[in-house]
Write a structure and sequence with these properties.
The chain is mainly beta. The chain has one domain (about 1-100): Barwin-like endoglucanases. Helix content is about 10%, strand content about 45%. It has helices spanning about 30-35, 95-100, and strands at about 1-15, 15-20, 25-30, 45-50, 55-60, 70, 85-95, 105. The chain is globular.
């Protein structure tokens, strides 16, 4: 039996941009992607602290070190610049493997979106 478990989490980052005139996705600083073990085009769930919105999109690489968190396309309507969000991804794995799996969870600085030293 396979189950879905948390694979990656970026806890509380600030939305820096919202671009409605784009085909979709969330642009994430490549440093944050690496820290959370996310890859380009991976499906992610976005949870917005301000308004309770929860939605699904996919990742595109943002400039390394920029702190960018940009919701693109229709997702831009679910956030405002400055909103705090959580970004999650999940993986399917065998039940026994899931018992010992440890997700990649990061807690960036919520003002700069930079990884803490």
């Amino acid at each position: 039996m396979e189950i879905s478990v948390l694979k990656s989490k970026i806890h509380r980052v600030k939305v820096t941009e919202a671009n409605l005139d784009y085909i979709g996705s969330v642009t994430i600083d490549e440093n944050l992607m690496d820290g959370a073990n996310l890859i380009e085009n991976e499906q992610v769930h976005i949870l917005n602290y301000r308004n309770g919105e929860r939605f699904i999109t996919y990742v595109i690489k943002g400039k390394r070190g920029s702190g960018v968190i940009c919701l693109n396309g229709p997702a831009a309507l679910k956030v405002s610049i400055g909103d705090m969000v959580i970004i999650l991804s999940f993986a399917q794995m065998e039940f026994e493997t899931a018992k010992t799996f440890r997700p990649h969870i990061i807690f960036p600085d919520s003002e700069t979106n930079q990884l803490k030293a």
